[in-house]
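Minutes, methods subgroup
Present: GH (chair), OT, SY

1. OT presented the first of two proteins processed in the latest run. Sequence and structure tokens recorded below as shown on screen.
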Amino acid sequence: MRRLTFLLLCLFIGIGVATAQTMKVTGTVISSEDQQPVIGAAVVVKGTTIGTVTDFEGNFSLDVPRDAKTIFVSYVGLKTKEAPVSSVMNIIMDSDSKALDEVVVTAMGLSREKKSLGYALQEVKSEEITKAGQMSVANSLSGKVAGVQVTSQGGQVGASQNIVIRGNSSFGNNQPLIVVDGVPMTNDNAKGSSVILGSGLNDINTEDIESISVLKGGSAALYGMRAGNGVILITTKSGKKDKGITISYDGDITMDRIYNLPKLQNKYGQGYYGTEFDWKESGYTGSYQDFASNYGYSYKDGAGGGVNDNADESWGPRLDIGLQLPQYNSPVVDGVRQATPWVSHSNNIKDFFQTGLSTSHTIALTSTTEKSSTRASISYRDQQGTTPNTDQQRYAAALNTKMNFNKYLEFDLSANYVRTTSGNLPGTGYDGRNVLQSLLQWHGRQIDMADLKANWDQKDENGAYTHYNWQKEYAVNPYWVLNKNLNKYTRDRIYGKSSLWIKPTDWLKFEGRIGLDTYFSNQLSNVEWSVDYPDGYFRDYDRGTTEINADFIAYFNKQFGDFQVNALAGANYRDYKYYIKTIGADELTVPGLYTVANAKGSAIAEENHEARRSNSVYANASIGWKNQAYVDISIRNDWDSTIKDAFFYPSSALAGS
């Protein structure tokens, strides 16, 4: 009794010590300027990585160490606040006058003072984009802009990202319009044969970005109906202000490890029946060992020839209690599969994954003279996934140049070429080519993953593959899938723009701009063998899009006494084309030969085209009074070839400092 009392006392003391290590801190963050809650403010414990963000009411809750002394609160446009830790904290943040006077890039590439804007705009500079070593532009935005939610479609190689600004507005596509150097860019999330091919944003090298501005609500009106979900403006780097030639190198190395896995039971192995409860309820008079062998599980061929050996679930005999059962990897003696220890492999899913390694290299040359500035860069990115034998490489070249011929004439060019390749992209969805779906949803807890890896390409005495696996009616060895049933992908993309500027006076200028975004891709998804396609399968997709945008814009910027007028008016022509061509077969005559001529039976041949054009006119005027009060008005009208009625988009805003 004394021993039990002592143990309970130790337990309670341990709980008390653990509880005492942290304390709950709650609080509210408001702005001193308008007494409104600050949404999305970062709250971080000084000297640690412990932090959170405020909700829509400006509230936050955080578990902090007992020895924590200080909390930092930061938000774009407000001065960072440092406050001592207490259980309840009410934090008031002041406006940052420096932030209010800063110049930001807005719609149509205009540079404006931030204080003159009557709408929401947040800008992220290049150092914030690149310092975390993210492989994609979308992921680099995560957590840096209030109201912007970035969701990756899985952490695997080539995964797409879904970007939503201020929540979903419809049941369909809610992603914002992407504009690079003033030209819209296609950001489709293409998919074929259960393979996600990556977002268009993945084609942009983060090291080539100068800044990213996020436009929300009425601020995006100048881009018309395509900007109903907001706009992400990307400005690429150009030459430096300092004269001369410089060469720079930037590189990143990132290692990825699986952060979290579902909690899985390790008490019962493969099967539908055979637990100790089943044994007792059945009235069987023999031992649990005999019951488990005769009624629970016994492997013969993995296709139902044994006792529940075609089961793809783990509700079978009890593990780790000394049972001996014939299993898929048990030795065969004189044609009889021997019984071996029935034990769990609690880390079999974790052991499947590997450490992912990503490297990125960029070399840039900049040249600046009195009349020109140029930046040219080449980059290479290599990504090896956490899923074995998945990879992606990206080769990119970029050129950005500006030339002043004289005080009346100016020219600029932004050109980018990107080649993305992969020897194997991972499968997705509820499909046999998605090894993660198979492993995490349907598998036996007794599986030895190292054994599957060592024998995935096993052959019999005749040289034929045995398709070695723990179960053969529904499942395929995951290492066979990743080494034989491949998803190869190549995409070549060219995007950029060229502008000619005419400046007759210092307050009036005209721009003629033409922008191009085009890509051509090929995807070959093949199955050499699977349960669903024992005679093979392949689909060969050719896809392409071309979008041309031509704009003519007049800019006006002049002071009239106490009033400053900044205005523009322009017209846009857009031409968009898309095509996809597919060939394939659901059965093959010769294994591993993926051609239409090798199709057994009818081949698959499909083709689809899409085209649309639009014409638009737009205008914007910003009138400021004594650099203190501003009124901003925007209008746009779109005529689209696919919609009968025209679309008119007005917007107005007031701002003051």
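2. SY then presented the second protein from the same run.
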Amino acid sequence: MGALDNIIGLLNARPRGWGLLDNSEPSPIAPRTPSPHAAPFGLGALKGAAEGPQQKPALGSLSPVDNLPDMGAPLIGDGGQFSPGTKSGNRLFGTGGEERYQLWPERIARSVLAAARDGMTAAHDAMTGELPMWAEDPETGEIHTSPQAIERARNLAGLLVGGGMPGAERGAVGAAGGKLIVPQEQLFDLSRLSEVPKVKQFDLPRSELPQGVPQRIVDITNDPGVRDKMLETISSGQKMGGANWFNTEPLRGSFGAELGKDRGNEAYRMYMEMVGATTPRSDVGTNVRNASYYYSRLMRGEGVPAVGEKNPQPYGHLAQRLHQMNAQRVAGSGFDPLKTPKPPSFVENLVGNQQPVSVDMHAFRLPAILAKDSRFLKTAYQAGKNAPKQNLQKMLANGEISMEEAANRPAYWQAYPREGEYGALEKYYQGLAKEVGLTPAQAQASAWLGGGKLTGLASDPTKPFLGFLNDRVNLTAAMRGETPTETFRKFIRGQAPLLSLGGVGAGLGATTLGQTDEPD
């Protein structure tokens, strides 16, 4: 899959250069006037993570970043050798005393452009929309690389690798091997992620209906059989590393080391807010990457994209308008947790407050599927964009589908709570967490992993959020011919967002933590 992965990366990259931004120092963040109705969950709402919620400062309260002092030695060691000991790899990246002659993407672009029409039109077609980059998985509702993009990549990959070239070194970089060697530098200490961050733990406000909790939620949350299955699922997921998933304290430390404690903590929060803004219908890798684009714009004082503005490749998304709406909220008055409970809950979990619960698609579906409760089946299910809508509840009642069939089809089940249901499900997960001795966020993440086969989760169950970020930095460094340390520092300073993972292998048919397939 190496050549295919890299061609998808080519399609996702901008035609004119592999880095979206230059390496010049960013401009200061322009002062803004905060909304008089500012909610306490927007950018920089926590000046220090341990201080709890407070009024959100204006974006301009962050210190200018165009005059950052020389930080001296990198905040982490300058490692990341590309294919150590391999002459072709060292020549490619200018390591090991070899002079860099040309990046692999440059060579591939030139050779493919000269060889086939696909090579001449792929980037243009992606930019103009003639080649759709995204498609919705009818099984799970998730967004993945489109079949058209995959087919184009396969055609190009055939040109790159063909039947193999005699004498080509196994795994060599370039047309013969067709594989971009990505460094695997570990940027974070992951040994203590199971610990609860030393920040204030608090609940977010939730809306309630005057008539109380809807009956279907009352029924599944009070079913002892479902509760036992949920506890078993959480225990299974805990063994898979669920308790580690949300802890990002090592990243907070990196921001502080690069920008100073106060400014670093605010910038760290800003990035996580953009992760929350871009999480709907995104896999984690895409979420990490697109959030870095919105974050870098704010750090340079450019503001977030207007709703409807076309993001440059590779930062577009099928749910881009929703992402832009969320980003506008974050950059303005902030999320209202009563109206949009999931994004601010996800952000709070990522910055260390593990008391709220991110009730996303997987967290919502799991107890419903375990209960085999037909009230949670979709009433307007579509197998594809042009397929007729089907009322699965009626089809079940009429015997057209069986409950066993429905239980094995995650896309058959509703994906988000209705009004008045979020808070009740949050309390349910909080109660389960106490029984197993975990925080609510740890219990929820463990349920994600342990129940992934039921809800459609197919991502790496051993990888926490920081693992996805680490992979993205390494991949970006390889594409730009930088060390991971250089790429990481540019990302933190807002000088250059992260690039595409080249993601066919990252997940056709996969769904990942922190997703939802409906507007939050």
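Chair's summary of item 2: The beta strands are 134-136, 143-145.
Next meeting: continue with the remaining queue.
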